[in-house]
């Protein structure tokens, strides 16, 4: 719990700074890159959380990874975290920053799981449905493919879910048949 509060505070500070410098979109893209890179690399996570590796070495590695790809505000922020001994929380902080920016811009993430990759027409229909579920707010569609659905999709927006999948329908039918409405003696 303590780590979440720290990550939230650092992310909020970066949000305020990026708003002051009018670089919110640039820093947002940078922090998405940082979050995805750390999330996708176990070795990087281990290196960042290792107490054996000196902060200077961590700074050099992070600089080699991100210096050519990120804004100067983001680069300075990453160096600050490393100098303060918070580099192990960089992934959490960057993810928290991304969420805070979405909240600031009033963007809701809609998660859609489909049996196959969505074409543009299906994506448009699902996006419209997600916008209705979000109460007209702007949405960001997060797509995932799960072939076990057989067909259709499952859409989650906040705490609402629409299950329009074939496997969901099969489960529903299975529950109906388990009720066993047969009454002996008729």
Could you characterize the architecture of this molecule?
The chain is of the alpha+beta class and 186 residues long. The chain folds into 2 domains: 2-103, Peroxidase, domain 1; 106-178. Helix content is 59%, strand content 15%. It is built from 8 helices and 4 strands. The chain has a 4-stranded mixed β-sheet. Helix 7 links the parallel strand 1 and strand 2 (138-145). Helix 1 packs across helix 6. The radius of gyration is 22 Å and the shape is elongated. The protein starts with a helix and ends in an 8-residue tail after the last helix. The relative contact order is 0.11. The model has no long low-confidence stretch (mean pLDDT 91).
Query: Strand pairing plus helix content: what structural class?
Result: alpha+beta
Helix content: 55-70%
CATH architecture descriptor of the largest domain: Orthogonal Bundle
What share of residues are in beta strands?
A: 15-25%
Q: Name the CATH class of the largest domain.
A: Mainly Alpha
Write down the domain tally: 2
Number of continuous helical runs? 8
Poorly predicted spans: none
Question: What global shape is seen?
Answer: elongated
Q: Give, in spatial order, the strands making up the sheet with the most strands.
A: 2-1-3-4
End-to-end distance: 61 Å
- What is the quaternary state of this protein? single chain
Helix and strand run: HHHHHHEHEEEH
Q: How many E strands? A: 4
Mean pLDDT metric: 91
């Amino acid at each position: 719990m303590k780590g979440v509060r720290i990550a939230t505070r650092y992310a909020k500070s970066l949000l305020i700074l990026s708003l002051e410098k009018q670089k919110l979109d640039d820093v947002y893209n940078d922090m998405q890159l940082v979050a995805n890179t750390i999330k996708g690399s176990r070795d990087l996570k281990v290196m960042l959380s290792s107490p054996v590796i000196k902060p200077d070495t961590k700074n050099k590695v992070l600089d080699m990874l991100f210096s050519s790809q990120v804004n100067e505000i983001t680069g300075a922020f990453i160096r600050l975290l490393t100098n303060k001994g918070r580099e192990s929380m960089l992934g959490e902080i960057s993810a928290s920053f991304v969420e805070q920016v979405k909240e600031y811009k009033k963007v809701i993430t809609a998660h859609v799981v489909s049996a196959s990759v969505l074409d543009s027409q299906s994506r448009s229909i699902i996006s419209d449905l997600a916008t209705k579920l979000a109460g007209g707010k702007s949405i960001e569609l997060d797509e995932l493919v799960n072939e076990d659905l057989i067909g259709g999709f499952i859409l989650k927006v906040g705490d609402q879910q629409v299950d329009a999948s074939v496997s969901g329908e099969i489960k529903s039918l299975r529950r109906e048949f388990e009720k066993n409405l047969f009454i002996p003696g008729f």
